[in-house]
Model the fold of this input.
Amino acid sequence: MNRFVRWPWLAGPLAVAAAAIAFLELGGVTPGRGAVLVTLVLWTGMAQGSVAVVAAAEITGARWVASVKRELLAAAHLLTFLAALFLLVWPLLDLYPWHASPGAWLGPRFFFGRNLALLAATAGAAHLFARRAVAPGAPAKRSAFLYLLCFVASQSLVAFDWVMSLAYPWVSSMFGLYFIVEALYAGVALAGLIFLLLDRDARAREDGRWVGARRDVALLAFGFSVLWGGLFFAQFMLIWYGNLPEEVGFVAERLASSPTRQLAFAFVAACFGAPFLGLLPARAKRSPLALGAVSATLLLGLLSEKLVFMLPAVPLSFGVLALQNLLLAGIWIVLVLGFGQTGSIPKVGAGAAGSGGGLA
Done:
């Protein structure tokens, strides 16, 4: 049996984790609400991006991904869990300003139904792709294309429905692309953490392929920092240059008060400054510790960014948010270590071994 699907023990621990998150969010532990919405926005991007990085590598023939393919695809199990967690959003829909006067698109039932259906479809496509990607000789490109289509649609709705409509009627046509790129960026960061977690044993076993693949991921993280910085600047410049009240208000509100003002500067430093400067030296690109530190900083930056976008409308408890994210981080680590390195990837041929030069 395919080792990817032979995990019957997952259901129990994940059910306990879901119950714990539901209690933290809806049990009246703290007066704040909405932490699970921020958590879902962050982890949906990370988990979908992790699988999307493998799908993009599969289509483009990137060779570095063979070293951590199973570990990245472990996020497919997390996607099913996150789709189930989305049920906790239903009691929080009154946080959205359109809830009092719903329209044809932004109405509670249609909002909830289309997002839940797309999360489930993306999780299903992820499992289909993962099974084929790890099966020796199985064609996986078609399932990779299918998954990427679901990924793009899902992240677009996360951007426009989950986050942007919290600031309704503010709109940004770049938000969807921005979230898609960020999800891929987060997937590369998770790959960087995997290389740090498994470095000692894998380096001795893979005879140089591991080191070359790790350097490729460092180059990818550096490249994505430039891409992310360009997208962020393009969106900010358009808002600043246009100077329209309905656009500038979104930025002004977040820079006028704490903690969003401090978090705004922090996430720019973490998502652009740390990867760009930290991975600029050639020595840093060869260091698993440097790559892991930059990856962790980047993910914290993405959490800070989501808080900047969502805090004005979401009166969450930071303690509950921290506990939820620590619980999901623990689940992700267990999934990654459970897939292990020993025997996880079939022997690759001459056309698939060695360093792959990024996604292509």
Summary: Residues 1-6, 341-358 have pLDDT under 50 and may be disordered. The CA atoms of residues 8 and 22 lie 23 Å apart. The chain has 14 helices and no strands. Residues 21-339 form a domain with the Formate dehydrogenase/DMSO reductase fold fold (CATH 1.20.1630).
